[in-house]
Amino acid sequence: MPDPLPADSVGLVTPQTYHFDTPLELACGKVLNRYELVVETYGELNAGASNAILICHALSGHHHAAGYHSADERKAGWWDSCIGPGKPIDTRRFFVVSLNNLGGCHGSTGPSSTNPDTGSLYGPDFPVVTVTDWVNSQARLADKLGIECWAAVVGGSLGGMQALQWSLTYPERIRHAAVIASTPRLSAQNIAFNEVARQAITSDPEFHAGRYSDNFTLPRRGLMLARMVGHITYLSDASMGEKFGRELRETAYKFGYDAEFQVESYLRYQGERFSESFDANTYLLMTKALDYFDPAYEFGGDLAKALQGARCEFLVLSFSTDWRFAPERSEELVKAMIAARRKVSYAEIDAPWGHDGFLIPTPRYTDVFTAYMDRVAREVGA
Description:
Layout: E1 16-20, E2 24-25, E3 31-32, E4 35-42, E5 52-56, E6 95-100, H1 131-145, E7 152-156, H2 158-169, E8 176-180, H3 188-202, H4 220-234, H5 237-243, H6 262-275, H7 280-292, H8 303-307, E9 313-319, H9 327-339, E10 344-349, H10 363-379
Parallel strand pairs: 5-6, 5-7, 7-8, 8-9, 9-10
Antiparallel strand pairs: 1-4, 2-3, 4-6
Helix pairs in contact: 1-2, 3-4, 3-7, 4-6
Pathway: Amino-acid biosynthesis; L-methionine biosynthesis via de novo pathway; O-succinyl-L-homoserine from L-homoserine: step 1/1
Protein name: Homoserine O-succinyltransferase
Site (Important for acyl-CoA specificity): 324
């Protein structure tokens, strides 16, 4: 018999699929006539529908944020450390909604889905989507769930961009936005990393201009390399040094090009595993959504002016060793919020884990996050 599930877990959860038949106009000018979103929910919606929290995922994330899909599953959802009874997002108080975004490859309509208009897979014909497109689709999901206003929209990394965009696109439908390990726009270096990843995928001979399914193949090598590049940027030099150092897999150099160092072996393993579970076209799409995000763009680059339309309060958290979305980027966002006279709470968390720090429950991170969400709960009577 499997071990009992942890007492602070949301327990067994079952994904749900929501169907949308109203056409969704996208920023690229194209239209999705019909689409589906896969969703998980934790906790209970109160009578006034005032205690709902939306969880927005990062690049390779999905709807399974907490709990377990079966009693035999030993790996919990990707943010189980923060969602559940007694955790920062306490499911005894909040109704939590987590979804797989449009363009994803874990059940929501995306490149690996069948186009209902043609009967064939979308593949590379799936339109490029933006953070604003995701927020618009999430607003329709909120309508289906009977949620007029989120108590908070919460996300890390690319998820934090969605939380920020919610505050601008639907200011009347969000009380709080938690923007964690994120940025108001990518730096040139970040765009460069994404381009290297895309080139790794598109130059794979098995990519076939995105029609690899039609050719009964997969661009595993390209996706593996893309993930390896990305994974390096999610970790700090200190955390990689602590975990691997310069340790060899065996006791002596082999003077060849196989994986001799532990870190090489780790990166190859992570890349290979990812290439078996993630869709290459989705990876291209997600990185482009990252590149395009820039709420200040339509305001002449003035972020403070862009934020003047927001009404909610903000929590902004950064991590000291995050060099992908460095604390300076969060501080830039906070300064713009202050200039726009928005209410904001900010903390830089001293943690050694790099960008992945938002996934790891270090004490100060947990304390700050919990204190803020406790205030959210009190405000909505949860």
